[in-house]
Each structure stands twice: as C-alpha cells, then as structure tokens.
Specification:
Order of helices and strands of chain A: EEEHEEHEEEEHEEEHHHHEHEH
Oligomer: homodimer
Number of strands of chain A: 14
Structural class of chain A: alpha/beta
Radius of gyration of chain A: 21 Å
Helix content of chain A: 25-40%
Distance between the termini of chain A: 34 Å
Largest sheet of chain A: 6 strands, mixed
C-alpha cells in the first residue's frame, strides 16, 4: 500500500445507517473531494456480507490509496458490521477515538474502524431505577463535526429526525442528551393512525398551519388530546388535509421544544436535513432564539476531525471498551 | 304488530360500532333479558346493507314483538346506516332524545332510531381558532346510563379506550369533554414503532411495571422522550419485554391523567372494559382517588333510560337537527 503521496492521506468517511449508506473521500485538509450514496443500509446486508458491500461501493477509492476508513452510524450496532459498544458520556474526541472498534477482516486492505455511539445515564427518581439510559449512534459524529466546524466547545445541539436528539456539550465533551421520538410519531400519526384519513402527509409545508400547531403545543395542552384535535378540525371542515399535516408537525415539534429548556441554552446548533432544520429554526424563533443550522457536512467534518485522534498504527486486536 | 302484551314493551338496544355489533333485549323495567354480539361492525356492512344485517341478527327479536329499537355508536356516522348529526353540548337525556335520527326504511317493521353523538367546543386561544371541537359517538349513551344507574347528576366520567373521553356532567347534562388518543397510541407504539421489537404487547399485565410508568409520567417528563426510555431499558437489559408493555401503558395512562384535573373532580365514574377500567382505577388510586367502575351495563341502561324521553309515535320524517 502506498505510504506517501497525496492520495494516501485521504480519509474514507462512511455514514452507514439503517436504510442508507453514504460515503465521502476527504483530503488531509478536510475537503470533501467526492460523495456517494447507496440504498445499502445495514438492513439490506446479509450476515457476513459487509466487507463485500464495502468493496462494491468503495473498492476503487481504497485502491486509489486511501489509508484509513472511519464509519459512523448503525454499522456499529448489534445488527451491523461489528458491534462498537457505546462510549459513556461525558465524551469528546479523545474518548470516542479511544473506543473505536477496529475491524479485523483479512479481506480489508485499508485500516477500518467503526465509531462507537454514545450512552448517558439520566437521573430518574423511581423505585429500583436511579437512572434511565439514553443512546445515540451516528449523531455523536455530527456533534463533533459541528464543534470542529464552529470552533466552539460549549453549547446545545439539536439533531431532528426519526428520533431527535438534544445534546449538551461542555468543554468539548457531550455531557448528556435526551431522545424524543418526534419524527417516528409524526410518521405513525400521519400515516397509520385515525388521522391518516384526513391528513395529507405529502402536502407541501404550510408555515401558517405549522405556527398554529406550535402555538397550540406551547399553550401546554396535552399531545394525546391535541392530536385528536387534528381529527376534529378536519371533521368540522376548519382545516384542510394539506395544512393539517403541517399543523400536526407543529404540535409535535412544539411539544418537543416545550420539554426542553431552550431559553436557558447559550448556543444552539441544529443538525439535520434542511427541511427539518428549517422547521426547528421556525419553532425556536417563536422563543426568540436563533440557531445555526448544518447538514451532511457535519458528518464529514466529524469523521475528518476524529482522524487527528487516531493511533498511528492499526491496533492488532479490537479495542476493548473501558466503560 | 302487537300493541299490547309484555313483549311489545321490549326495547331492542344496539351498540353498533366500527368493528362489532352488540344487541340486547330489555324489558320495561330495564332488565336485560338476552344479549348478542356479532363481528358485523359498520366497516363490514356494504352500502345499503344495514337493514339486511339488522334483520339477520335481530329479526327474531323484532317478530317477538319488540316495539322500539335504539342504536348507539358509529352506525350514526357518515359511514353508518344513517348520519345522525352531533348533538351540541350541554346535552342530557332530553337534548339527545330530541335529536334522534329516525330511520325511514320500508323494510323495517319496528320504529328504529339512531342516537346522535355529542360535540362540544373547547376554548382555544389561537389566531382564527377561538374554539376547537371535540366529538364522541356511543360514549354519550354510556354516560347517560351511568347517571341513570348511579342516580347522580353531577360528576366526571372517564371512558378509556382507543380514544379515551373525559366528560364533565353538571345538572344531568354533559357540559364538555376531551378526547385522548391513548389507546390508539399504545397500539401504534407497542406494535408498529421501534418499540415493537422489544415490547411484548401480549404479555400479562404487570402491576409493578405499570406503577413505574405511572410514576415516571407523573414526574412531568415528556411522553416523546419517556417512550424512548422503554427502548433503552430493554437495550440495557433493565426491563423485560413483558413488563415493558405494562410500563409503556403506565406512561401513556399516566400522561392522560396528568393532563386532567383529577383532584378537582368530585365524583368519578370509569366506564369501559374491566381490563381497562382496572388500570385507570390503579392510576387514580395513586392520586388517592376512588372511582366507581362500570362496563357494558352502562350502554344498555343508557338506551333503556332514553326510552322514557321518546316521542309517543314515530316521526314521519327524520328529525332535523337544531344544532
């Protein structure tokens, strides 16, 4: 394998999720030279088939001389390529790098590691349950990337999605975080519940209806009740199927915001798809809060930045987690 | 048709819902002489086929001389036998009886009416929305039945189910009510969401896990977040699939209770299936509140009691709703 020359310093960065596989070739300065995306999420890969899918999708980049591959996301779960046990919070670059799961596969001609997800223990005052665990996989790299790109070490990251994450960062480490099932609930409610009959989940975003939903949620009414209101608004022809989808979205995102101390946060970074971060930015604006938004670049920046915390050579055995 | 004799005074009481059809033959004293249940909910009846299903299921009771048939439930919805427009709150026996939807069908040899559901307008302080409507169909008869059986005219009725109803009653009339999608959410979360992998929705009820869920909800944490906790408790092997179902049920019912001023209520009646009213009774007990529970008898008592508010003869045209 080439040990000198420009290509040898390239990082092969992968975000291998449940339903999709994305990759980027990144040079030593952190510049993304090329990106690829495949519908080859871990659920589509047969047992023992990860090295082959990797070769099919990125073999040419490996042969071009990339020296290291870092993979984030569900590839590190029990159902993935190799399980990377969660890194316990507080966790920053060094903690995550120390718990990389190196893949020992003779078929691999590039040193390859999976980034562990994070876990934290949230205080819980219940009999027999002093704490409740929370977990993330993939978002930790986006948070590290946001810190790297933004040059800050203290703040709050909101990562909207199927399972939204709210992560607090102090002195360059994620101290704790909480998950909200907002995106999954929106999908279930708008597509599987009674509301599916009268909500057009494919309708374009309606900012006015979204704002109404946000306002309703902020008034403190219960989501179990408010969601039924989306049904009766339709039954009494007071809102049409298109706006109803945005109203429901506003109810859910508003409920998520209400559960968090947004006004006490100093610096908020939103990380996710533009369509989602736009909605959260609108929601935060109703609290008078401005947030910086970023997308896929956070993932590539996080994996790039992690490179500077790697050991100089590939460990010969998988790293044993210490937490 | 017989106009005298004991059988002529029998009421044919039907609860015709979305997925099931139940019927009872009730004598003048309100005694249920016989009950039947069929999997012939309105969704299984082809357009124009209601009279035939009615004849197949209850024709012998009609020929035995029953004089009146009262039907509650979704048979009065747009998709039902004949639409019975909602009766607006406040509504008691007289209001509901005045808005019965009499069915004009030459094939019918018994005077037959559908009981309207109730609607109410809940205050709502949103631009362009001063009120939000709420609706019920079928539960109004159960509430009237509970009043009739209990001999009270002021109180709170909780009707757990797919869409739970909390109804306030003053001076013998339902003043307003609120719907909570608790039962439907439990089904979606335990069977369709990420949680379905690790929650055993068929497991027997676990009172300890249920109590933990109730306590967690009462501590004020957000349901969108708490539900994900049911996932991580499983991921970290801190709760098994069976108890997790009861924990999740406790989270949801606890959230429903938290949204209501249960401690301010004077008299609480729970109406529903024993397995559900048992859970709500346990939940109310954590607030130090005792509630009376009733089941199907409330439906039959409500339809029986409505009989005393009927006009003496069948209206020749359908009653026109005044609200």
């Amino acid at each position: 394998m080439a040990s000198t020359g420009e290509a040898s310093a390239h990082l092969l960065a992968l975000d291998w999720g449940t339903s999709s596989l994305r990759g980027a070739r990144i040079n030593e300065q952190g510049q993304v030279l090329e990106e690829r995306a495949f519908q080859r999420g871990i659920l589509s890969v047969p047992a023992g088939g990860f090295a082959q899918v990797f070769e099919e999708c990125f073999g040419d980049w490996v042969r071009a001389g990339a020296r290291t591959c870092l993979i984030s996301g569900m590839a590190g779960s029990k159902q993935g390529w190799a399980e990377a046990p969660y890194c316990a919070c507080p966790a920053g670059f060094a903690d995550v790098a120390a718990q990389l799961r190196w893949i020992q596969d003779p078929a691999l001609t590039i040193r390859t590691a999976i980034v562990p997800g994070l876990s934290c223990e949230l205080p819980c005052d219940l009999p027999g349950l002093n704490t409740l665990p929370d977990v993330m996989r993939g978002e930790e790299v986006q948070i590290l990337g946001a810190m790297h790109l933004g040059g800050w070490r203290d703040g709050l990251c909101i990562l909207p999605g199927t399972h939204s994450k709210w992560a607090r960062i102090q002195d360059g480490r994620v101290t704790d975080f909480r998950t909200f099932m907002t995106g999954e609930w929106y999908a279930l409610l708008s597509q599987q519940s009674l509301l599916a009959r009268t909500v057009d989940a494919q309708a374009p975003f309606d900012p006015n209806a979204f704002a109404l939903g946000l306002a309703r949620a902020r008034q403190g009414h219960n989501l179990l009740h408010n969601a039924f209101g989306a049904r009766t608004l339709s039954l009494f022809a007071r809102m049409e199927a298109g706006p109803l989808a945005s109203y429901l979205s506003g109810l859910l995102i508003g409920e998520e915001l209400r559960a968090n101390d947004v006004q006490g946060a100093r610096r908020i970074t939103l990380i996710g798809s533009p369509s989602l971060t736009q909605r959260y930015a609108l929601a935060l604006a109703t609290y008078g809060i401005t947030a910086q938004a970023m997308g896929a670049e956070a993932t590539w920046a996080g994996l790039h930045a992690l490179r500077h915390h790697l050991p100089q050579s590939t460990p010969t055995t998988p790293t044993t987690p210490t937490a």
